[in-house]
Amino acid sequence: MSEAALADLATPALLLDRARLEKNTRAMAARATGAGVRLRPHLKTAKSAEVARLATAGHFGGITVSTLAEAEYFWGHGISDITYAVCIVPDKLERAAALVRRGARLTLLTDSAEVAGRLDARAAELGVRFSVLIEIDSGEHRTGVGWDGPAVIAIARALDSARALDLQGVLTHAGHSYACTSVAEIKRVAEDERLAVVSAASHLRDAGFVCATVSAGSTPTAVHAESFAGLTEIRPGVYMFFDLAQLGRGSCELGDIALTVLATVISHHPPSSRAGRSRLVIDAGGLALSKDTSAGDHLPGAGYGWIVDPCTAERIGDLRVALVDQEHGYVDGTAIPRGRLPVGAKVRVVPNHACMTAAQYPRYAVVDGDRVIARWERANGW
Ligand code: PLP
Fold first, then answer.
1. DSSP state of 269
2. How far apart are CA 288 and CA 263, in angstroms?
3. Looking at the DSSP assignment, which residues form a beta bridge with residue 187?
4. Which among 140, 298, 305, 324 could disulfide-bond with 285, CB atoms 3.0 to 4.6 Å apart, if both were Cys?
5. How far apart are CA 71 and CA 253, in angstroms?
């Protein structure tokens, strides 16, 4: 694609800052290498082959995904070692089997001996063998089983005796690191995450099972962990882009955030009771930014995103999107620089939660300063 000026983009548009993305991916790759652990980046946020290539550089090339659509897309873009890190059910095995038949090294996840039995029956019917990880709950309480309970041994036994499944190891995700209120607390959760999965592996090995993979990871814990000892791989994902939620948790600086939404000022609305002190209205509302306000838990005033300069990405005063309708974003701040931001002016919004915001867009406009240097497609949907 020939280069274009940022100002020529139709808005709202999803911007990806190439230099920041490269810095973030290089830093995590170096951190994993330094700790002697493999990096299996989670592509659930980026959903892009070009980003995957940067995120896996210098590592073994394996990735993590959260949908079968991502698995199919990345396989189609030359990535073969893929962990689908959401508990699988038998109905989804046919699609997974198609990938394995084409040569993918696809690893699946379960947290139930009973489901493992049904997966085995379906896999045998399909005539395909699958590698399976046992999900360990290290404190998030989403899915997974305790590392030391009877369930983990029961699942291992079911996988070990299966006709068409192989026990590959254990996996955990410390999603509860997002509830931490300090870096010290994230470090403690990172250690809990590591110990849960390393202990599960020892427990299984002591019981005579093979446990080749010991996998952990979230962005806050991968950034702040003091030890990765005993892990074979880590799986952070959002670190490639970062966002206000990560900024509020001390995992990045504002200048590290690679993902923004380009928007246009569409009205200078007078103050109203509905929009508080809002003066500016932009064409990026709830669909363009998402209605995820969780960054505000740790970053009071995050609203639906911070307003930054379209070219320099420097914050403009304390401007933020205070309220959204479907296609309207209401910008609030102590002082609104009306002269600098007339109707028609462009701004960028730094999103609260990169995964949710990016999911609204079919592609990125990849930017270098105020120039659009590439368009990268995303694998949305399921
Ligand atoms: N692994 C699993 C199983 C996940 O669900 C996620 C994110 O939801 C990650 C890794 C990546 O963590 P983060 O989004 O904090 O980068």
1. P
2. 9
3. none
4. 324
5. 31
Q: Are 63 and 56 in contact (CB under 8 A)?
A: yes
Record the tokens describing residue 319, joined without a space.
């401007």
In this structure, what token pair is assigned to residue 183?
């870096």
Distance 170 CA to ligand 1 centre (A): 15
Q: What kind and span of H or E run contains 25?
A: helix 18-35
Q: Which atom, in ligand 1's list, is nearest to the CA of 220?
A: 15
Residue 86 Cα to ligand 1 middle (Å): 10
Residues within a 6 A CB radius of ligand 1: 42, 44, 64, 85, 173, 217-219, 235-238
Residue pLDDT, tens place only, 263-301? 999 999 776 656 566 689 999 999 999 999 989 989 989
Q: What angle do CA 163, 165, 171 make, to 5 degrees?
A: 155
DSSP state of 270: P
**Adjacency order of strands within the sheet including 105-110:** 38-39, 233-234, 213-216, 165-171, 130-135, 105-110, 81-84, 63-65
- Tokens standing for residue 348: 């960028």
Q: What is the pLDDT of residues 249-269, one digit of tens each?
A: 999 999 999 999 999 999 997
pLDDT by residue (tens digit) across 26-50?
Answer: 999 999 999 999 999 999 999 999 9
CA-closest residue to ligand 1 atom 4: 173
The answer to pTM > 0.85 is yes
What is the token pair recorded at 122?
């379906």
Token pair in block for residue 22: 């490269």
